[in-house]
Amino acid sequence: MRRAISLYGLTFSLPLLVWQLLFFVFPLAFLVALSFWTVKNFTMRPDFDPVNWVTMFGKPVFWQAYGTTVALAASASALASVLAFPCSYAITFKLSDSARRWAIFLMVIPFFTSYLVRVYSWQIFLSDAGIVNVILGWFGLGPYSMLNTPGATMVGYMTLSLPLVILLQLFSLVFIDRTLIEAAHNMRCGRLRTVFEVVIPSARVGLVIAALFCFILTFGDFVSPVYLGGGDPTTLSILITDTTKSGQQWPRAAVIALTMIGTLLAVAFLAVRFAYAGQAKGARK
Amino acid sequence: MQRDTLVSFEGVIKRFGGFTAVQKMDFEIKKGEFLAIMGSSGCGKTTTLRMLAGLEAPSEGTIRLSGKPINHLPTWQRDTPMVWQSLALFPFLNVRENVEFALKMRGMAKAERRQRAEQWLDRMQILEFADRNVAQLSGGQRQRVALARSLVVEPEILLLDEPLSALDAALKVRMQSVLKNLQRETGITFVYVTHSQSEAFSMADRVVIMSRGVIEQIGTPQEIYGAPRTRFVADFLGSSNIFTGKVLAASQSMVEVETPDGRLALGGGNLPIPPRQGDTATLTVLDTKTHLSVSRPTGAANIVPVRVIGEEFVGATATVYLETAKGHEIRVQKSHDELAGLPLDIGQELFVHWAPTDSHLVAEA
Amino acid sequence: MQRDTLVSFEGVIKRFGGFTAVQKMDFEIKKGEFLAIMGSSGCGKTTTLRMLAGLEAPSEGTIRLSGKPINHLPTWQRDTPMVWQSLALFPFLNVRENVEFALKMRGMAKAERRQRAEQWLDRMQILEFADRNVAQLSGGQRQRVALARSLVVEPEILLLDEPLSALDAALKVRMQSVLKNLQRETGITFVYVTHSQSEAFSMADRVVIMSRGVIEQIGTPQEIYGAPRTRFVADFLGSSNIFTGKVLAASQSMVEVETPDGRLALGGGNLPIPPRQGDTATLTVLDTKTHLSVSRPTGAANIVPVRVIGEEFVGATATVYLETAKGHEIRVQKSHDELAGLPLDIGQELFVHWAPTDSHLVAEA
Amino acid sequence: MSSEAINRNRAVDWSLRAYIVLSYAFVFAPIAASFVFSLNSDRFPSIPLGHFSLEWYQAVASDPLVWQGLGNTLVIGVIVGVISTLLGFGAAYTDYRYNFFGKQVYLALALLPPTIPVIIMGLAMLAFLSRIDLSGRAISVIIAHVVICAPFAMAIIRLRLSQMDPALEPAAWNLGASEWATMRHVIVPFTKPAIFGALFITMAVSFDEFAIAWFVSGLNETLPVKVLGFLQGQVSPRINAIGTFVFVISMTLVILAQVLLSGRTGPTAADKE
Amino acid sequence: ADPTELTMLAWYGHAEPDIVAEFEAENNVKFVPKYYTGGDNMLGLISQSPAGTFDVILSDAEYVQALNAAGYVEELDPADYALDDYFPEFQQFPGNWQDGKLFSLVTRFGFLGVAYNTDALTEAEAASYDVFWDPKLTGKVGHFDWHLPNLGQMSLLTGNKIPYDIDEAAWEAVKEKTLTLRPQIGGFFDYGGTFSSLNDGQMLAFAGIGDWITGVLEKNGAKVKSVIPEQGGLQWSECFSIGKGSAKADLAKKWIQYITSAKGQAKSAQMAAYPALIPNQKGWEVLQAENPAEAKRQGMTKDAGNAIDMIRAGRIQYRQWPIQQDLETWNDFWSEYKGA
Ligand SMILES: Nc1ncnc2c1ncn2[C@@H]1O[C@H](COP(=O)(O)OP(=O)(O)OP(=O)(O)O)[C@@H](O)[C@H]1O
Ligand SMILES: Nc1ncnc2c1ncn2[C@@H]1O[C@H](COP(=O)(O)OP(=O)(O)OP(=O)(O)O)[C@@H](O)[C@H]1O
Ligand SMILES: NCCCCNCCCN
Ligand SMILES: [Mg+2]
Ligand SMILES: [Mg+2]
What we know:
Distance between the termini of chain E: 59 Å
Largest sheet of chain A: 2 strands, antiparallel
Keywords (chain A): Cell membrane, Membrane, Transmembrane, Transmembrane helix, Transport
Strand content of chain E: 15-25%
Structural class of chain A: mainly alpha
CATH topology of chain A: MetI-like fold
CATH superfamily of chain A: MetI-like
Bound molecules: adenosine-5'-triphosphate, spermidine, magnesium ion
Number of strands of chain E: 12
Helix content of chain E: 40-55%
Number of domains of chain A: 1
Oligomer: heteropentamer
Distance between the termini of chain A: 21 Å
Order of helices and strands of chain E: EHEHEHHEEEHEHHEHEHEEHHHHHEH
Domain ABC transmembrane type-1 (chain A): 66-271
GO biological process, one term (chain A): transmembrane transport
Shape of chain A: globular
Subcellular location (chain A): Cell membrane
Largest sheet of chain E: 10 strands, mixed
Strand order of the largest sheet of chain A: 1-2
CATH architecture of chain A: Orthogonal Bundle
Radius of gyration of chain E: 20 Å
Number of helices of chain A: 12
CATH class of chain A: Mainly Alpha
Shape of chain E: globular
Membrane topology (chain A): Multi-pass membrane protein
Largest interface: A-D, 87 and 85 residues
């Protein structure tokens, strides 16, 4: 019976609430306060001065970085979704149950290898004399400049997000009612058309959420743009680290961080709305 | 009425790996009939239907539709729409879009398919829900959408796989008459898979009874109910008492069988091939054809002394459960009026008797 | 047999937010009786049971157990064990541990509770599975574990919420007799929630019929079946034909009602408070009490001309569906023998008739 | 599976399977390469490879700082695992059991932190913790990691609870068990696999997290922070050696969690359908 | 007894065994290092840690003022150290002293010029900063990602004698010139990225670095080298201080004595992580005796044109904070440049 929360209930619900208030909400709130502090001679002073907001928002380089970051993250989401879909589709529909379990297990492994280590590894693949160019050389191609380009950043972004995107897509695909596919075939819907008419609409929520996670991950990542992209172009994450590197400008870094959070919340809100668009409330039963 | 053949199964076998789900099946479906396929779980009903729909390929044999073999025609090139147990409505489309789906796949223009869809929605009395999400409909309404979705292409045949099993009892009965009427009015051949006896018997023109991939009996509901042909069918329908014993005497018109519960007779032109003396024979008698009396009836041919073990109250009738001296259970079904005069306390000793003409021989296995 | 009162509901109301699930309920449960609570989905059966078990608190009114009010006693301080539809066996405990659970919570010593548990497992004929994981049992065996687990504390009352609804038909019937016998042997009061008419009617001493949080009728199965008291009950049981009209004449022994389908009479000591002339009255007649004839019967009081619209074949009996000139549906249920002589083609004109003593007045709403 | 013979096309099926292999090749290429280069003699790895060598492992093994980092990582990981699992359990149970005003906000607090980019979390954490004199210590990393790990624990345990027959808990009350007894004898045993699963997964997450730890760890660097240091400072195949090593530990934890989560746990409400 | 722990905040390498093992053994000390990745990072770490967290702090010279201003370091007694052994220019090193008080001691330094790939460029080509604009280097020029050394070099190139003390017009000129380099740039790298991109030929020339990078790579056989171009070079200088509130100030003092002694200086010059020049003349002598090749490679010999001669010839300028502009102004421009 659902009674009002009792001592018993509070014992279970309070600790997390207190912890997240103290160490999640307060730090974020402090970040807001911090963005109004001022810095003189390497020292921060509590203050209530919008100067950091004005300065940051007044800088073309900030907006440039903002545009770049949004564009990169959006491209990464689109690219990851498109690259992952055939793979998760094939794992769902073209593998036996046991092969599928293995595939899922294998896709979990990357989460437990250091992202830094993998990015470092990519440097060895992508550099001018790296593995890829050596292999291309065997076919008389290249060498191509790959490292320190936005393309290499994208490779890093895929390293970061592809396993997650594949898994999230996979989880929405395996839960598709197979009879829907059979029903579509039964109504003269051919193989490929079924993918677009039935499979994708059925998995829509999962596909959008997967893309959203890719966006969130890549939007805040600084490892790939620095170590694969050569720090060029400047992304917001690079701008944050740069800002903290220049005369203790933490308040300005806070402005960037808060702008990023705002952007992410807006994107997440829109994505979730889009994912569930057209699905009535009752649909979740 | 002699109808043309629409579908024929010719020696059709379906294996899954080493397991044979359907064994050498030969039968025909007539144009315009309502055929029910019944049998216990796992007997191959769905597999049979799916082969017809092109969702499984037969391992051997040929399936013909209007005379043409269709074994290897992909699903999407046949017109064999199916209604799924789960309904398989597209949750991301609204009611109208669901119904339009098959038409869209056939490349029909938007205006025309909209009109056709609405016509069927109207016919199924759900036009007012056309713009609703399927999740917002009740079970019965969803059922109608599924029917409309399959019927909108006006096929020659409609396949239904336990379409009513998810509905509650009241709705089930209501949808049965919707289905029956629809079939009558459209003249479309219905192939209806179910494991509910009452559904099959109340709707179908002919019933196929399957067991472990084999057809046990095909016939009208009356034929099957009145004279189950095999022990499986008798058991499965559950309305017969079954006795097994050795044949003592057998002629064209009368057979006498020695069973643990006594000597039982049957006869009256029921015996195309009478069994031979000494054979094992199984005979059945419907629980509605058995009678109860307090004292041993005189002149009756089949009399079994029994004790009452319980009574079950089922609407207009009651079933009395009895036990012979050997522990064999016998059931007698009667109206309340007929039972009114009998003492039915547990342990009460009574006599069950029935006429030899109400007994039938059935094949074992 | 007059039994003592074990439980009483006194003006009990249960609201969930603004919604009233149970409305002013007053009734008693006798010691040792088998009480079934029936009604359509959402009518408040489970809520009633849960209030008794202490899983919900009544919003108003008092529930008494052996005379003591128990409204606010937490579940774990009452002895009102419940058998859940899902069984709610503990999957991480084996069979024995499941059965011991309640004893352990009562602080009983290990050896003793083991012995008690085994005694009940033995009684339920599942002692051999004592060390099995519940997942390894069949549906019927699990059912027995659930019963043993609740009964091991030897309570005065056992609450059952649709315990059989997940079982297949055959098992359901078998478990019905297990339950009925158990109740008889132990003398424990059973409160059994179901929406299956056949379950309620075959097991219960008394049946409560609910609709939208209100008790519509309480009585023995025979009383309710034979004389539904309200239109809802008649409708719900589904075995009555129902007619509504204006009272033309009324006396202590006879009432005449003018209905769209003709003038109908009822009578014969059934009328404690006869309606007044001009009132609207609803009368019912069981479909088994109606008769069919080809020509207008002479001398019968209630005769309605009808046309055949269909026939439904249900085991030992068939139901003929008929339609009056006004489009009102009438059902007649008869054995196959009784129907054998009648022409039942669709559209055939026939006469339905019945005796005034077989009609009953029911309350509207 | 079933419509194999009729409705499938072998060429399509095989090209899709080939695509799977390609995708996995992309995902595993850097992992495999890192393993290979950890055993390669060149300090700045390139093609063709140098010779086989364990020198980087030796370098790692003989570096007391690496051992110290490992020790920090392990201690922090275990504490983070335990606290996150406790908090996550409480939150999951709260969500499962109670309805209350503001529950949406509660759930947002319980689930949102992992979606905040780590660099922002790190920044906010450092700025905040240093104000309250809690930065630069092992406890700072623990605090920050619990913030991002508790949601994982919550999700894992909540999933398990949702597989629990909702009648199980009232059934126990009904059999005479008080709320606390029910917690001990029913809820905890039922969720046990998920509790251990959550414990190992959160430990693994903490083992691998470098960005927030880099900000707040101060002198008590964890191993991943050391890796970042190597990457920023001393590019060296030691990265690969440590990576391989951490990978082995993490995988062990994950496999343990996997075994527990899918182990013999009896039927769930879901399988009873 | 358990060794005493001494915490050191420093660039990577300063508390590695090749440097500290001997001192640790002699004094039963165990260094606990915290390596930072930039001066601001260092300041951040100090400001966000309780006082006394770090016993020894190694900092680039320009940051010592900030450390001082914030009160993060203890005053040192010049008498405690062998300052007399230092070259005269390093005895009164700017930044080490404030109002006549000593706060830190320079321990090593190096020159920043043009780092280049010897396969791609000749030493003559690299002998001017103009080489960065060479069309054959398009996309192959890297920046060490910090404004101070890079803009300092650009300032030298635009003809400023003291590169960090320039007026607005000169600053505008520096900016303008710098922006023209942007299309040539292949990336902005941290220390690690600088290492690997030079090593594998990803970048063929680098601004803002010197022998501290190429020296390490050379040792590993990479074909890279640094030169001080005709426009002159910059000098970085690392200084040791004692952290404010250190409970082990004596031990910290002992360490600074050790590392600034001739013996410690010779070790420091050959530090495995990255080589450097040392300010202690006696240290030069020890090095010349111990490792003449390295002494020669780094130019710490008695020959004319050695490192100290380059300083004396005015070819080298200290790296320092901009004097007529705000630090922010330079940094903002750097961000802008990167984003351009
Ligand atoms: N794709 C498949 N692979 C392997 N075995 C299968 C497959 N499909 C069906 N079977 C097996 O074939 C047998 C017949 O299955 P089918 O689904 O036709 O039974 P059914 O009569 O429809 O049963 P139910 O009444 O339970 O729906 C079953 O034993 C089933 O396990
Ligand atoms: N906790 C609750 N909160 C809100 N409404 C509830 C709650 N529990 C039950 N109800 C509502 O109360 C009404 C009665 O519910 P109850 O479960 O008692 O029905 P029931 O007769 O057992 O139905 P069923 O046969 O479907 O089990 C329903 O409309 C239900 O939606
Ligand atoms: N990893 C430490 C490198 C320190 C080099 N200090 C010199 C600074 C050059 N700008
Ligand atoms: Mg089936
Ligand atoms: Mg209920």
